[in-house]
Specification:
single chain; alpha/beta; FAD/NAD(P)-binding domain; 7-stranded mixed β-sheet; 5-stranded parallel β-sheet; 6 helices; 17 strands; globular; binds flavin-adenine dinucleotide
């Protein structure tokens, strides 16, 4: 059977665009299928006050520097959306929207990509669907009993929806700290974390995180001792609003509660707090449901890869999900290199075929 295209890229966020840039440079025929009706991937859904943790020039995809945002050292999410919109136009990337991939299946020498807008047959597939679409909620007892509002980072927009309310923010990572800082003035805030929050030094931003992730990968590749990577520096980048809230004394963390009650939360020692809302800033998981039909998950629920290439099927690459698919690959600046490696690997595979 003749394929419809050489490569289907699933997802048209930053990772899919970076893949498209390199596939185009290599002269590979491809299409990008994206479930969103408009460009920008997950950045379109970020909360109102979200700013990048790196300056514009350090948040760029291959080929084109992100222009600075006037008056902002750390651009906001709307600026990222404009940059990605401009990027896909500039490189004339062949993107179809909205097209949701429902499943990828074996089809002899080809892979069959089934979507809500038809079927594509391709020689290779790059999955670049991100994590935003699969929020993670921990199994805390009583979650179904609580009668107040519960939402995840992915659904949070602005403090004005919580003005005057008693709000618990759960999570000691960047999202938890930033959303707690966002809510500190307008709500009666309790910030709970599983361990004492680990703030990075005030002068460290995403640039240092990228360097740390790259240094770790180099050390591991060269058989040297694990440097600890990003985790060795801390968990929370002290972006200006977080720094300001911490200096004002608003970011004092309380240990994690043990369960939810009908009216609020309860700690292991029996103390309780009645609250109006719980915001779970407890992370995301890779959105890989469309690959389940291929039966690729390893023993720990992870799809084993070498770099971006799936070990069990070299026609399939996973791009942008985290350090396991390339150092800092789930960041704007970090996805360029694994995207280039994936595109080269696929071009070589196509040539051999
Ligand atoms: P996404 O942006 O999620 O794009 C994936 C695309 O695939 C989406 O358009 C989606 O609709 C589509 N899709 C999903 N499933 C399907 C399907 N089945 N079929 C078709 N299309 C599908 N990185 C930085 O570099 N700097 C930062 O400051 C920074 N801050 C962050 C703050 C937060 C709160 C979070 C969560 C992440 C942050 N990141 C940051 C990390 C990262 O840059 C973003 O998560 C980014 O959105 C990842 O891009 P992506 O293209 O991999 O995924």
């Amino acid at each position: 059977m003749t394929p419809d295209t050489d490569v289907v890229v699933i997802g048209g966020g930053q990772s899919g665009l970076a893949a498209g840039y390199h596939l185009r440079r290599l002269g590979v025929d491809f299409v990008i299928l994206d479930a969103q009706p408009t460009p920008g991937g997950a950045w379109q859904h970020a909360w109102d006050s979200l700013h990048l943790f790196s300056p514009a020039a350090y948040s760029s995809l291959p080929g084109r520097l992100m222009p600075p945002q006037p008056g902002q050292t750390y651009p906001d999410a709307a600026h990222v959306v404009s940059y990605l919109t401009d990027y896909e136009l500039r490189y004339e990337l062949p993107i179809k929207r909205p097209v949701r991939v429902q499943g990828v299946h074996q089809h002899g020498q080809l892979l069959r990509v089934k979507t809500d807008a038809g079927t594509w047959h391709a020689r290779a597939v790059i999955s670049a669907t991100g994590t935003w679409w699969r929020p993670f909620l921990p199994a805390v007892p009583g979650r179904d009993r609580f009668t107040g509002t519960q939402l995840h980072t992915a659904d949070y927009r602005s403090p004005k929806n919580f003005a005057g309310q008693r709000v618990v923010v759960v999570g000691g990572g960047n999202s938890g700290a930033q959303i707690a800082a966002d809510l500190a003035h307008d709500t009666e805030l309790t910030w709970v974390t599983q361990r004492e929050p680990r703030f990075l030094a005030d002068d460290i931003d995403g640039r240092a995180l990228f360097d740390a992730a790259s240094a770790r990968r180099r050390a591991l590749d060269e058989g040297r001792a694990d440097t600890g990577g990003v985790a060795s520096l801390g968990d929370i980048v002290a972006v200006p609003p977080v720094r300001a809230a911490r200096h004002a004394g608003h970011l004092k963390a309380t240990p994690m509660f043990s369960r939810l009650t009908q009216a609020g939360v309860e700690w292991a020692d029996g103390s309780r707090a009645d609250v109006d809302a719980v915001i779970w800033c407890t992370g995301f998981r890779p959105a890989l449901g469309h690959l389940s039909s291929l039966g690729l998950r390893g023993s720990r629920g992870h799809i084993p890869t070498t770099g971006t290439r799936v070990k069990a099927d070299p026609r399939l690459h996973l791009l942008g999900y985290g350090d396991w698919t390339g150092p800092a690959s789930a960041t704007l600046i970090g996805v360029g290199r694994p995207a280039r490696e994936a595109a080269r690997d696929i071009a070589a595979l196509l040539q051999r075929a």
